[in-house]
Amino acid sequence: MEENNTGETGVVDTVLDSGLESADEAENLALEAARQLGFGDEDLHKIGMAVREAVVNAVVHGNRYNARKKVRLRIAGDEDRLTVSVSDEGQGFDLEALPDPVAASNILQQSGRGIYLIRAFMDEFQVRRLAPAGTEVKLVKYARRK
Amino acid sequence: MSVKLSPRQVGEVTVIDVSGRITLGEGTSILRDGIREQLAGGQRKILLNLGDVSYIDSSGIGELVSAYTSVTNQGGSLKLLSLTKRVQDLLQITKLYTVFDVYDNEAHAVRSFG
After folding, report:
1. I need a surface site. Which of A2, A3, A44, A66 has the fewest CB within 10 A?
2. ω into residue A101 within 30 of 0, thus cis?
3. Please, are residues A90 and A69 in contact by the beta-carbon 8 Å criterion?
């Protein structure tokens, strides 16, 4: 993996279509970067799934499959962490307003577990509104030093 | 590889061997259609064998929940068999272990339907 002048390695900055195939593509790119940074199998699974969930949210809830809208994926890593940013061009959402998927009243809901799983699998999760429109979610996984 | 369903009958219980990935799109559609097909055929005791499911995302989990409620709402039971460690972990994290009846042994699972 290339190292740039900021000390980061494996920088990916790419634009994906608003289709479900983008989830596979993003997951594979994140896994490739994470593997090169030395993450183990269990962390790889968590990273891959969290990135998949973030991209599915961007495609389905953010861009609503609109072919004119794109998803931007950025992946950067260094010896301490892997950082993945996923941006859409949608209307945004209120993180605090999302229902708790493990509450008894929601446990049998079909959807609403994606962000909950991202939070469970990653060490940091941030959501930022973009101007003029769109949302960026940032996922961070810390490297576990032996 | 998406998901593949292979239903077989063990007494009154329909065991569906599921393999592959249950993710949003083809995977969840195939599972939904497979459950609908069993319900339309009058099957009400369904055991999903997930031993060969390599990957499941939040939409796949949602589809399992939907299958559970569809079968239960029609007076039947849907149970799970042979979860991989990762699927077990997902059910723990999402607290769905409290919803699903989960078995490691097929014969025990089949007998549990009564």
Report:
1. A2
2. no
3. yes
Name the residue of chain B whose CA is nearest to A49's CA. B57
Give the residue ranges of DSSP H helices in B21-99: 26-40, 58-73, 85-93
CB count within 10 Å of CB B82 equals 20
Residue B75: per-residue pLDDT = 97
What pLDDT is stored for residue A1 in this prediction?
A: 46
pLDDT single digits (tens) A76-103: 999 899 999 999 999 988 888 999 999 9
Predicted TM-score (pTM) of the model is: 0.93
Greatest CA separation found in chain B?
Answer: 35
For chain A, the residues whose C-beta falls within 8 A of a C-beta of chain B are 20, 23, 45, 49, 52-53, 56, 60, 101-102, 107-111, 113-114, 116-117, 120
Q: Do A23 and B23 touch (CB under 8 A)?
A: yes
Instruction: Report the run of H or E that residue A36 belongs to, with start and end.
Output: helix A21-36
φ and ψ at A57, to 5 degrees?
-60, -45
**Can you tell me the distance from the alpha carbon of A4 to that of A7, in angstroms, rounded to the nearest whole number?**
6
Give yes or no for a contact between B78 and B72, defined as CB atoms under 8 angstroms apart.
yes
User: Is A110's CB within 8 Å of B68's CB?
Assistant: no
Per-residue buried b or exposed e for A56-86, using 16+ beta carbons within 10 Å of the residue's own CB? bbbbbbbbeeeeebbbbbebbbeeeebbbbb
Which among A20, A113, A117 has the least Cβ separation from residue B25? A20
List, in sequence order, every residue forming a beta bridge with A126; answer none if it has no partner: A138
B2 — pLDDT class (breaks 50, 70, 90): confident
